[in-house]
Amino acid sequence: MPEPYDPLQPGDKEAIAPTGAGGPMDLAIEEAESLEKTLGDAPGPSGPGGKARSLWSDAWHQLRRNPVFVVSALLIAFLVVIAIWPQLIASGDPLKCDLSKSQEGSAPGHPFGYDTQGCDVYTRTVYGARASITVGVCATLGAALLGSLLGGLAGFFGGWGDATLSRVADIFFGIPVILGGLVFLSVVTSTTVWPVVGFIVLLGWPQIARIARGSVITAKQNDYVQAARALGAGNTRLLLRHVAPNAVAPVIVVATIALGTYIALEATLSFLGVGLRPPTVSWGIDISNAASQIRNAPHMLLWPAGALSITVLAFIMLGDAVRDALDPKLR
Questions:
Q1: Model pLDDT for residues 1-20, shown as the tens digit of each residue
Q2: What's the confidence (pLDDT) of residue 102?
Q3: What is the 3-state secondary structure (H, E, C) of the chain?
Q4: How far apart are CA 180 and CA 326, in angstroms?
Q5: Could you give all domains of the chain from N- to C-terminal order, each with its CATH number?
Q6: Between 20 and 30 A from 320 (CA), which of 61, 91, 102, 152?
């Protein structure tokens, strides 16, 4: 009988046969085990030991290594500190003026010079951070809370409530911000920051609501939400435990960027005479008072305008850094 055909040559059989310790197969196995052990001991792409990080820990890991975030965060921290305790770097009184020094330039102890009323520009610039940052932070918190609540509920439950919210938001989107401020704030006689905060919240919540609504609609369609619903989880548990934590990131990004915009809006309204009013110290008020004297005393305009620009830029840069960290597509 002829022997059956064997496609493997004798040398091939010896090459693939596990012929004991040190053979080719044993060496391959040892190399695979060594590689597996190395990969298991090495830090994974998301954390030590290959343990995956959560969205927030991964975002913080990215932010700490982003120089834009570090610089903007340090600058914002400094601005917040001087807004709370302006006496740390300015010992004078922003309302104490001397007309005999009207529009004078820098002098010892007064590096920014004096304004038209003889007030120290440096002191007023430092104290002006309090009102501007207060308006920006309070307006952002109010708009974010109101918009997230209404938009999240509308996106989660849908139906007639969702349709009604969308139409109401469209109405607010059609109101020009500056014109609305001129009409709304011109009838307010209060000199505090709260009318301005209320107006910004009134016109700012629709943008946050639209972002929150779309984010909730996307999150509630995920498999883990459907699985939790199938296991008997109620709407409250689904919304608070599964949907909201995974839908809040876009709201945080938009709110962070909007904070700088709200500070600029407050300064614009104060410049037009319908925002903050004296005796409140504000960058917008000082810019308005200095606009007519820019040729005679440009220092009156440059310092408060520069402080306003740096503050707005810092918050916008912070928002951009947070957006890059929370959106994996931008990495």
A1: 445 444 444 444 444 444 44
A2: 86
A3: CCCCCCCCCHHHHHHHCCCCCCCHHHHHHHHHHHHHHHHHHCCCCCCHHHCCCCHHHHHHHHHHCCHHHHHHHHHHHHHHHHHHCHHHCCCCCCCCECHHHCCCCCECCECCCECCCCEEHHHHHHHHHHHHHHHHHHHHHHHHHHHHHHHHHHHHHCHHHHHHHHHHHHHHHCCCHHHHHHHHHCCCCCCCCHHHHHHHHHHHHHHHHHHHHHHHHHHCCCHHHHHHHHCCCCHHHHHHHHHHHHHCHHHHHHHHHHHHHHHHHHHHHHHCCCCCCCCCCCHHHHHHHHHCCCCCCCHHHHHHHHHHHHHHHHHHHHHHHHHHHHCHHHC
A4: 34
A5: 58-330 (1.10.3720.10)
A6: 152
**Confidence bin at 317 (pLDDT 50/70/90):** very high
**Mean pLDDT in residue range 85-94:** 89
Tokens of 297: 């005393």
